[in-house]
Amino acid sequence: MTRTYSDAVAALNTLQTNAASIEAVRKAGNSLNIQSIPEMIGWCQAAGYEVCASQHPEPTATAEPPTGTKGKGSTSAFVSSILTQYLPSPSQSKPLFTKIGLYTSPHLRFVRERIRINNEPISEELFAKYFFEIWDKLEDRARAKGEPTDHTAKPSYFRFLTLMAFHTYIREEVDTAIIECGIGGEYDSTNVILNPSTTGITSLGIDHVQLLGRTIEEIAWHKSGIMKRGAAAYTVPQIPAAQAVLQSRAEEKKLPLLVVHKNPLLDDIKLGLSAPFQYTNASLAVMLASGLLQKLPDSPAIDPLVELPPEFTRGLEQVRWPGRCEIRREPGVAWHIDSGHTLESIQLAASWFASHIPPAPSSPPSPPSSPSPTKQTRILLFNQQTRDAPALARALHATLTAALGTPHPFTHAVFCTNLTHKNLGYRPDLVSINTDRAKVQALEVQRGLQEAWRVLDEETEVVVRGSIEEAVAWVRGIAEDDGGEVKCLVTGSVHLVGGFLEVIEGGEVAE
Predict the structure, then answer these.
(1) Which of 28, 50, 49, 25 is nearest to 158 (CA)?
(2) Which of 350, 395, 390, 361 is nearest to 490 (CA)?
(3) What's CA 424's distance to the chain center, in Å?
(4) Per-residue model confidence (pLDDT) at position 397
């Protein structure tokens, strides 16, 4: 085997869990959850780390793992952006760090996006180097024990990347790392970190019910598993049932839990992530960053509720997180892009999109069956392959109907698969085998969405396309015929948004 980035991605993809295996995990329920941490510790030991990879040889090493149902990626990005303002630079006379790690999931276009240093994805060369260092260690261990060196000698896709991230940050001697949880918290593979500096919980909602439970109380119990004694714990305001569980777990662990409300000092700051709800995530990020800095011996005194240091302001303003509340323009189309994929995040994405639509001219209220009061062409480009897609579509429609005051929020809608290109298939980084291939090829989910939307709004022109590339071409065709600037909301799935960005940034477009 050669040792390029492409080789590493191809090998990594062999560790993905297929649709049948995922269904088995769902049926097994919590019994597999309980084994997750012991198994992950075992993989850390197999890679050469005696207890877990969080035991960095440098005493200044710290980590802060945000978890939650929505906003954890954005919150992590805010924290990283704040901390990187303390790197050596012309504007920073007293730097506190030289390298800051950021581990998030999933990725949009390139798997190396998950492992960042100083806000930049590690290079293809560095990814390949550290990937094969872990790969070889695990295969050597299997050979020494007389065991096969196939996929059974390695952890699953996400666990391997988590292990590789720890290994990368240790080898690169990062000073601190922000580690975003994958699913849940208590049994998530990132939760082998023993002594984080701070922990944070973003807004909770119902998601991943097969693994985390079907009630908000069960989900809150899992999420609160990241809280560790000795580490400051923060949460954004939660609904009472969830907050009660978080508070109870904090008391069990004998640690204080601080509820972080929107920080009024942020009112005059234009966040790099523009949606109104991002001020909640930014407020949490401010507390996480200040909590970490306060543990450093040379850190200046910071009270983020009284005054924000200029580094904090710059970090909040300069943060960039592609695919979240992002607008990109090209001739004829304003693409409004958000990777919301849960009920709550879809509702937030809809509200954000509505905030960018000018109010219709004043006129008497229209009856439900009347045409939209505005003639502007608005298009929905949507997919969600593994969750209850029609339920998400209904939530999107309901939120926009209420926000815009019309039952016809879109003039057009296109539902497509997550296949990147019509002829080229998936980009290797975007290959996913955790969906039923037959259902994807039959466009089963997309046709279901088409029918569901026709029930919601029979006036919308609705089509189905087999790839993201074809969906983008269809939208551009509508825009060309329109002659003005159409607005298109791209949402429903991180995988959809990643493939979409691949198409508009570098891929060929179908005729």
Answers:
(1) 25
(2) 350
(3) 26
(4) 97
The structure's pTM equals: 0.89
* Both structure tokens of 366: 């229209």
Contact indicator for 396, 453 with CB cutoff of 8 Å: no
* 153 — pLDDT class (breaks 50, 70, 90): very high
Among 302, 301, 307, residue whose Cα is nearest residue 269: 307
Residues 188, 209: Cα–Cα separation, whole Å: 15
Segment 433-458, tens digit of pLDDT: 667 778 888 999 999 999 999 999 99
Q: Which residues are registered as beta bridge partners of 219?
A: none
Alpha helices in 14-89 (DSSP H): 19-28, 30-33, 36-46, 72-83
User: What's the whole-number mean pLDDT along residues 488-495?
Assistant: 95
Q: Of 86, 118, 88, 85, which Cα lies nearest the Cα of 102?
A: 118
Q: What six digits make up the tokens of 44? A: 């850390």
Angle, nearest 10°, between helix axes 157-171 and 124-144?
Answer: 110
Nearest one of 284, 291, 229, 286 to 261, comparing CA atoms: 284
| Cβ-count burial 105-135 (b if 16+ within 10 Å, e if not) | bbbbbbbbbbbbbebebbeeebbbbbbbbbb
Residue 106: cis peptide before it, omega within 30 degrees of 0: yes
Asked if residue 85 lies in contact with residue 92, where contact means CB atoms within 8 angstroms, the answer is: yes
Residue 146 class from Cβ within 10 Å (0-12 exposed, 13-18 middle, 19+ buried)? exposed
- C-alpha 251: how far from its chain's center? 29
- What average pLDDT score do residues 469-495 get? 95
Please name the residues in contact with 334: beta carbons below 8 A apart, sequence gap of 6 or more.
Answer: 327, 328, 485, 486, 487, 488
pLDDT bucket at 30, cuts 50 / 70 / 90 = low
SS3 content of the chain, % helix, strand, coil (to 5): 45, 15, 40
Q: Up-side HSE of residue 292: CA atoms within 13 Å toward CB?
A: 31
CA-wise closest residue to 312 among 257, 272, 259, 256: 272
**CA geometry: angle 373, 352, 392, nearest 5 deg:** 90
- State how far the Cα of 156 lies from the Cα of 491, in Å rounded to an integer: 27
Work out the end-to-end distance of the chain between its first and last CA atoms, rounded to an integer number of angstroms. Answer: 37
Kindly state the tokens that stand for 70. Answer: 């929505």
Residue with tokens 């329109």: 482
Confidence of residue 54 (pLDDT cuts 50, 70, 90): very low
Spatial separation of the C-alpha atoms in residues 80 and 74, rounded to whole Å: 10
User: How far does CA 462 lie from the centroid of its chain?
Assistant: 28
Per-residue pLDDT, 299: 82
Confidence of residue 297 (pLDDT cuts 50, 70, 90): confident
Amino acid (one-letter) located at 198: T
Whether 240 contacts 263, CB under 8 Å: no
Is-contact 495 107, C-beta < 8 A? Answer: no
Q: Which two tokens stand for residue 497?
A: 């948004």
Query: How is residue 202 written in tokens?
Result: 């973003």
484 phi-psi bin (left φ>0, alpha ψ -120 to 50, beta other): beta
